[in-house]
Structures are given as structure tokens and as C-alpha cells.
Write a structure and sequence with these properties.
two-stranded antiparallel sheet; eight-stranded antiparallel β-sheet; Beta-lactamase; 16 strands; alpha+beta; 2 domains; about 425 residues
Length: about 425
């Protein structure tokens, strides 16, 4: 009997130890184990708590991984101030434009499956985009509408060089009349494809391939994914990205049983502490991710996630497409995604843009601490992230604060993570 018990215990320990670190250790490892200083990381905790104590931040979750191991996972403040609900590591946030890297990854998966090429014209999948137009400002006011010089490609969308903005520019009136403004889609009572097809007839802000214009590009790619795969976007993302990575708290719309873990949206207030956003409305409110129509899957800004889930995704990218011994993307696809594709198109000094990520080309020119080859982005609700291949480091910072005002937490986050490197 005792021998049988010992054998069972030994087998349990064997299988537990055989599990990947990310599967058996959801918390943290000692900082020294990955070449970082626990004492110096405490400076980051103190800084984040300081923003909460000053009323400039309701709450946040910060996560740092190095060498594939979580070394820092800290929640501060409140998920909901009025309910006195504390922030916890598993709170689910609106990640807005951090959705873009996930959708870009799905496009690369489809290329690897032979379902598309990023050089394909968008019109191959959405016929309405086979012929597009551009609004050209006229001297003295107004604008002319001219034909696009060439077809928009999937690569143009991935790099935000298709000339498609968020309904702004000189032809903003046309976009407004078509009912397409802003990046928020959760309140729309129509499938994303219907909205995107309507976009195709509207004049774009620039010629394809000539300018970096941040806008609906990745929402359009979401429809391309549906057409190329034959599946709804949420189903494809779940099957090919979320489930394989174990991103069990990542969705387009929140399951009702997880409402108690949903972050409340707050806004910066120049005259006092942050204030709770209205319950109803669009992107500056709590949104309709629970009680809305649940029809529009916005690939550009519509995903909800946790810090741990998103860090797992970034770790896969940093690991050249592998997760827990399984290949999600090929090494060459990841390499192509994380290099600058803008060529001579103007962008921020020392930076570039790849297939879903901003890239750092020259830290000195950017004037901020980091590494050449680093890639990342952020979201409208004041979240941010980056992955640093040189330091083998992932940083994720989630909060739901819009507008964020003059808070300098992103800069402090970066400085206080890098100063904690001890090797």
C-alpha cells in the first residue's frame, strides 16, 4: 500500500516537473534567477502605487518576463473604485489597438496555410476594394476625388500604408455621412464585413504605399481572415491563436460569468482624481462588451484580454513562433513581422513599423531606453507593451484610462524595468 502511494506520488511529481514553466508556474520566479534585481523592481511597484495614491490612476497590472519566466506580476489600485473592488492579476481589460498584433499574426498563419499571400490585393477577398479612390485637398479648401494609383495590398494594411485612416482627413464629412467614424465597433448592430464593405466606396486619405496613415487597416484584415478561412473572425482567432496559446481570458465580447473581473474605465481629471466613465456610449464610456449587440468583431481594436494572456502571446513571438514546444508561427514569419517595412515612408525618428508592430531602429534617435530590434505598441485605453529580443524581455502594462491626460507612467515603467537588469 505504502509502495503504491510512493509510486503514485513520484509519478505526479514527475509529470508536474515535466510541464513547461508557463504551465506550472503562473506566478513569478526570483528576480536573480533571470538576471534582474528584486530590490530594484520594487521601485516600479512604489511608482505605480504612487499614481494610485495621487488619484491619477484607478488601477493597473504590470508584468515582466525574462528568459521565458515571469519575474514581475504586480496589480495596484482598484478594478472598480466605487465598488471598492481591488485590482487583481486576472482582471480583464479592453486592449483596443493591442488587438492589431493578434490579427496580424492570424494573417501570417493563413499565409503559412497557403490560404493567402500578404502581397495579394485586398480586392481578391473583398471585391469592393478592387478599385478605390483618394481625397486630394484643393487649394482654397475642399477636395477632389481621384482614382488610387494602384490596388491596396494586404501588406499595405499590415503596415498602415494603405492610406486608410479613421475617417478623418479632408473627406471626413463623407465618412461621417456613411456612419463610419472612430475606432469603436462594439455598439454596431451589423457584422464587421458590412461596415468594411461600405468603407471601400469612400475616399481614402493617401495613395497606397506613400504614407503611414493609422486607421481601419486591421479591421479590414479581420474581414480578409473571414473570407480566406471561411470562418467568423472570433471563431478563427479562438481556434488558431487563443486556444493554442492558452489565452483563456481573451475574447471579443466578455462572457457574462466573467463580468466581475472586467476593468472599469476611468478618465483623467485635471482638477482632481480620475473619474468613472459613463456606463453608456462609445469608446469614452464603459462600452458594450457585455450588453451590446455582439455582432461586430473589430480586429483593429475590439479584443479583451489579461496581462498574463497577452504576455504569453508576446513570449511566443519572442520565441520565434514557438509556445510550449508547439510551433504557432514559423521563425521566418516572425522575423518578417518584426522588421521595419516602411522603407522611405516618413515615420517617427529612430522607429519603424513592421507587420503589426512598431519597431525600434535606433534607441539613440528615439531618445528612450530600450534596444535596437525591440517591437511593441499600445492601446487607446492607455495600455502598452513591448518585447526586447536583445534582453529576452517582455513587458505588459494594462490599465483602462481614457483620456489619460499628462500621466507619465509609460516612461516610468520603461525606465524602472530596464534599471532592474542586474546581469
Amino acid at each position: 500500500m505504502k509502495s503504491s502511494f510512493r509510486l503514485s506520488l513520484a509519478l505526479c511529481l514527475f509529470f508536474l516537473l515535466a510541464l513547461p514553466v508557463s504551465a506550472r508556474d503562473p506566478k513569478t520566479v526570483p528576480a536573480a534567477q533571470v538576471g534582474m534585481s528584486a530590490e530594484r523592481l520594487q521601485r516600479l511597484t512604489e511608482a505605480l502605487n504612487g499614481y494610485v495614491n495621487d488619484g491619477r490612476l484607478a488601477g493597473a497590472v504590470a508584468l515582466v518576463r525574462r528568459h521565458g519566466k515571469t519575474v514581475y506580476l504586480q496589480s495596484v489600485g482598484y478594478r472598480d473604485i466605487e465598488a471598492k473592488s481591488p485590482m487583481t492579476d486576472d482582471v480583464i481589460f479592453r486592449i483596443a489597438s493591442q488587438s492589431k498584433a493578434l490579427i496580424s499574426t492570424a494573417i501570417m498563419i493563413l499565409q503559412e496555410e497557403g490560404k493567402l499571400l500578404i502581397s495579394d490585393p485586398v480586392g481578391k477577398y473583398i471585391p469592393q476594394f478592387d478599385s478605390t479612390t483618394v481625397a486630394v485637398p484643393k487649394e482654397g479648401g475642399g477636395y477632389d476625388i481621384v482614382k488610387a494609383k494602384r490596388k491596396i495590398t494586404l501588406r499595405d494594411l499590415l503596415t498602415h500604408t494603405a492610406g486608410i485612416g479613421y475617417g478623418g482627413g479632408v473627406a471626413a464629412d463623407t465618412w461621417k455621412a456613411a456612419g463610419i467614424t472612430g475606432w469603436y465597433f462594439a455598439d454596431r448592430d451589423e457584422p464587421i464585413a458590412a461596415t468594411v464593405e461600405r468603407m471601400a466606396s469612400l475616399p481614402m486619405e493617401a495613395q497606397p504605399g506613400e504614407k503611414f496613415v493609422y486607421g481601419y487597416n486591421i479591421d479590414i484584415l479581420g474581414v480578409v481572415i473571414e473570407r480566406a478561412s471561411g470562418k467568423p473572425l472570433d471563431a478563427f482567432m479562438s481556434e488558431k491563436v487563443f486556444k493554442p496559446l492558452g489565452m483563456n481570458d481573451t475574447y471579443f465580447y466578455l462572457p457574462r460569468e466573467k463580468v466581475s473581473r472586467f476593468a472599469t474605465v476611468y478618465a483623467a481629471n485635471s482638477t482632481g482624481p480620475v473619474t468613472r466613465a459613463p456606463d453608456a456610449g462609445t469608446m469614452l464610456a464603459q462600452g458594450q462588451y457585455v450588453d451590446g449587440p455582439r455582432k461586430s468583431f473589430s480586429g483593429g481594436a475590439g479584443i479583451l484580454s489579461t496581462a498574463r494572456d497577452y504576455a504569453t502571446f508576446l513570449s511566443m513571438i519572442l520565441n520565434k513562433g514557438r509556445h510550449n514546444g508547439k510551433r504557432i508561427l514559423s521563425r521566418k514569419s516572425v522575423e518578417l513581422m518584426t522588421v521595419n517595412h516602411l522603407r522611405n515612408i516618413p515615420y517617427g525618428e529612430g522607429a519603424g513599423f513592421g507587420l503589426g508592430f512598431e519597431t525600434t531602429e535606433n534607441p539613440g534617435a528615439r531618445g528612450r531606453i530600450g534596444s535596437e530590434g525591440e517591437f511593441g505598441w499600445g492601446g487607446a485605453y492607455h495600455s502598452t507593451y513591448w518585447a526586447d529580443p536583445k534582453e529576452d524581455l517582455v513587458a505588459v502594462y494594462f490599465t483602462n484610462l481614457i483620456p489619460a491626460g499628462s500621466i507619465d507612467d509609460h516612461g516610468k515603467l520603461r525606465a524602472l524595468i530596464y534599471q532592474a537588469l542586474a546581469d
